[in-house]
Specification:
The protein is an all-alpha fold and 191 residues long. The chain has a domain of 53 residues. The chain contains eleven helices and no strands. The radius of gyration is 50 Å and the shape is elongated. The two termini are 95 Å apart.
Length: 191
């Protein structure tokens, strides 16, 4: 066991220095002449009380009672009172419900939830699907107006290069059509 946990080495000065000023004296010990002077002190207290009643009669007429006294049999009846109050069902009328709804402690949270839900719905309505529909509604001419001539030329040049290179699968299809003497008109009609 370490020395810091040993109660014999515990420094009580650090906890409450006021207690250590009294030393090791017994706080409940009476003075040596306490009982001899008790009668004199009691007479002095009574004289002060009489002097106070003469000098301040209104103050001495204030009744002296304990305001914190519990009613008779209060603690015996308390459990049954608590049970009665918890088992009571409270029926509120429609007007009481309306008043409760319009109270700020109820109305503000409900209003916040409604606003957040409305904002989320509006945000979700502006989804990318609608933006794609809007993009499809734009005509080709409107799309081409935003593109400059050099971009169009580059796109056409790259498309013609891709056609000249040819895809091996497309080459097989072209060769089949040539070998079987398939007419372009019939092909377009079939498709």
């Amino acid at each position: 066991m370490s020395d810091s946990n040993n109660i014999a080495n515990f420094d009580s000065d650090s906890l409450n220095p006021d207690l250590n000023r009294s030393g090791n004296k017994n706080p409940f010990r009476t003075e040596a002449d306490y009982f001899e002077n008790f009668a004199d002190k009691m007479m002095q207290s009574i004289e002060e009380q009489e002097e106070l009643s003469i000098n301040a009669p209104l103050l001495s007429n204030i009744p002296k009672y304990n305001p914190f006294a519990a009613p008779a049999e209060y603690f015996e009846d308390l459990p049954s009172l608590i049970q009665e109050r918890t088992l009571k069902t409270v029926n509120h009328s429609f007007s009481e419900w309306l008043r409760m709804i319009f109270r700020p402690n109820f109305a503000l949270p409900v209003l916040c939830v409604i606003l957040i839900a409305f904002g989320a719905i509006r945000y979700l309505e502006d989804s990318p699907q609608q933006k794609m529909v809007l993009a499809e509604e734009v005509t080709e001419e409107e799309q081409l107006q935003a593109i400059d001539e050099s971009t169009i030329i580059e796109a056409l040049a790259s498309a013609s290069e891709n056609e000249s290179e040819g895809d091996p699968e497309n080459e097989i299809i072209k060769q089949y059509l040539i070998d079987n003497d398939v007419d372009d008109a019939n092909l377009n009609y079939e498709l």
